[in-house]
Amino acid sequence: MRRAITAGVLETSAATFLLLIAVQHFQTGAMAKALLVMGGPLGLLLSPLAVSVTRNMHWKAATGAAAASCLGCVAFLVAALFENLWVFVPSCMIGVMSLSLGIPMMTQIYQENYPASERGDLFSKAVMVRVFSATIFAWAGGMWLDTHMDGYRLLLLTFSAAAGMGAWWLRKCPSTVLHTATSSHPLHGMRHVRSDRLFRWLLTSWMLMGFGNLLMLPMRVEFLANPRYGIELSPPMIALVVTMIPSLTNLVFARFWGRLFDRMNFFLLRIVLNALFVAAITSFFIYGGVAGFVLGGFFFGMASSGGNVAWSLWVTKVAKPEFVADYMGVHSFLTGVRGMLAPLLGFYLVDWIPMSSLSWWSLGAIAIASLMLVPEAKTLRRRPPEDAAIP
Prior knowledge:
Elements: H1 2-24, H2 30-45, H3 47-56, H4 61-81, H5 85-101, H6 103-113, H7 119-147, H8 153-171, H9 191-195, H10 197-216, H11 219-225, H12 235-263, H13 266-287, H14 289-313, H15 324-349, H16 355-377
Helix pairs in contact: 1-2, 1-5, 1-7, 1-8, 1-12, 2-5, 2-15, 3-4, 3-15, 4-5, 4-6, 4-8, 6-15, 7-12, 7-14, 10-15, 10-16, 12-14, 13-14, 13-16
């Protein structure tokens, strides 16, 4: 719960402020913006390597997660010390990357400490702390940048301090040394994709849904801040619709989704969340206007609230307890693949096609992903209370 406070502050870096600084202070081009957005996916892409290093070093899961947070502390500090675009972009990219590196170890910690019957509910409580922290900091950071854009380095120093404090709290989380693998190869966990049909099917659906969603999520700041689209909202307004409204909605509904995760057919839950993402993209990019932005922010918050629980914990429903970090490493790796490709493709496609057309591509991918889950949703598949994997 204490670590969640710092995680909320760091969440605003990737979601809002780094892109805002790049667009309005450095006035940078598409490549630099894409690189900043790709930091998180790159961390996910490298997360199997982080699992492998943690295992080979015989570290506890919490120690591996803390080491990743320390990397972010150093990276944001470097970005704050040098006011230069060529330092800002790679340093912030590494800083954001570090936020994703430790995710498989965190899921292992949840598996070990939270009972299966309450896992979603307990996880959602920490999410509420993180979201509240993100909401407060998004408001404060937006107000600061509105009048002190040249003072953006204060935000970077805050991100560095938050990462350092997060590492301190992570080290205190109860955890065990990761299960010893028969191979030290970072992608050794991919063997589960071949052997587990349900895992493979869910990964395929998630790839389509995630690609469609990640194609549009980074576009929110671009859409609102770039003069090309004729909107040009102020930094506080951008922070309001991109971070604060979604965060407040996330805060209100986090516990609701956590409890649903524990009790509801997971496939049906995923379809409902996909529908909320469809509503968010439609409101924000197709309907438009202040009302559309606000409504889109609300739907993004609703979908992200449940999606955060589902994304972070769903492997605990299909993996044996000792293989949770491996399953999550595979899931994180594939999330990183689509997370790197989708924003890069999106930032270049908007130079050729209207934002509304790009939105329809996104909606189509999410719709196909949802249809893939319908056959599975007809059969109730819930994790047995003894923590055995779903057959």
